[in-house]
Amino acid sequence: MSTKNKKGPKGGAAYIVLALSVLAVVCVGVYTLMNTMFTDSPKLAPLEGKLPDISVTTTTASPAKPSVLEQVPASESKTQEDKPVSAEKEENIIYTIPVSGDIVKDFSGETLVYSYTMNDFRVHSGIDIACDIGTNVCCFADGTIESVAADPLMGQTITVDHGDGLKSVYQNLSSDLPEGIAEGVKVSSGQVIGTVGDTAMIECAEDDHLHFEVIQNSVRVSPSGFFS
Residue 208, Cβ neighbours under 10 Å: how many? Predict the structure, then answer.
């Protein structure tokens, strides 16, 4: 028997023993590590009885502050009736219909309408309100009489200046005017400033009426727009 054959098995056995020793050391290390981890972890104490009730707190957002316009002290809040009326504001001016009656011929603007007196088509710069001769004519709004004149075509005419570019014109009036009605006199809304006549030669074929015009910033506008 040769020497090689005897040493071969012994050398292989030594390697096997060495590998098993290393494997054992590794297993012991892993076991020790795992045991340490589970042993050192804190244990939770078991709950006794039922679970405690959970309290929920709800936070409500603060309401938004009102705008400056809404922040009005109660002592300063007034109704419309309590506030003084300013004649400088157009919305607070009192407009009065000069006479009661039907509008027999409306404001035409730039549209031509037929004239029974002149037998032609022409613009009509005011409204004709049907009423009897002698009917009282009331002032349209507060103002000052700008002129009292006998127009050759539209007859006795009164023009009242209401300020802020607004004027009213009353035509086909009687030549007999109420006492005190003259140029420069202050008049108020609803005050009688004359009576209906038949002095407008250019409209003498029409039924009895008052010819009424409104001028705003030097432009004649529809008087009907000022009445509800």
Answer: 17
